[in-house]
């Protein structure tokens, strides 16, 4: 019924401490929950929220960014399959690819690049994916990005 659909939509898009259910499920690797809130509850895969990593709150993080930063490849694959924008940034202009480079998730880096992630987008400090992977000591990712012409 129409009223219950409206209630579900309100719940799925409600924010607690700046995060929606989809943002939290992506951050914490709950694949089945991600699928449910997207497929059944019709959550917007481009919604943004606040999420915390290592004590730092990231504002305006899209679901793909959360999954990429946390290293959850199956969720990254699912969201890309659903048509999410692979280059959608946080408020600090960090892309999902940059988040994966920062945390050393090479499998996610390769997947995102294969799905048209832009390796040259810099964050608000001017740091590119190559710069951040070098800074963090992720040799495999740095070599891969250099092979791509970064």
TrEMBL record:
UniProt-listed Gene3D superfamilies: Ankyrin repeat-containing domain
Coiled-coil stretches: none
SUPFAM superfamilies named among the record's database cross-references: Ankyrin repeat
Annotated keywords: ANK repeat, Repeat
Cited InterPro entries: Ankyrin_rpt (IPR002110), Ankyrin_rpt-contain_sf (IPR036770)
Protein name per its UniProtKB record: Fem-1 C-like protein
């Amino acid at each position: 019924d129409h009223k219950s659909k409206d209630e579900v939509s309100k719940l799925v898009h409600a924010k607690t401490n700046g995060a929606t259910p989809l943002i939290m499920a992506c951050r914490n690797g709950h694949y089945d929950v991600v699928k449910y809130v997207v497929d059944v509850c019709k959550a917007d895969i481009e919604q943004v929220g606040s999420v915390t990593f290592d004590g730092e709150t990231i504002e305006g993080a899209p679901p793909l960014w959360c999954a990429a930063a946390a290293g959850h490849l199956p969720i990254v694959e699912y969201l890309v399959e659903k048509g999410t924008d692979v280059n959608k940034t946080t408020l600090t202009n960090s892309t999902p690819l940059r988040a994966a480079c920062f945390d050393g998730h090479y499998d996610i880096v390769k997947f995102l690049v294969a799905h048209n992630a832009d390796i040259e987008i810099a964050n608000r400090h001017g740091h590119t994916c190559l710069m951040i992977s070098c800074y963090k000591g992720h040799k495999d990712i740095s070599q891969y990005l250099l092979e791509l012409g970064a």
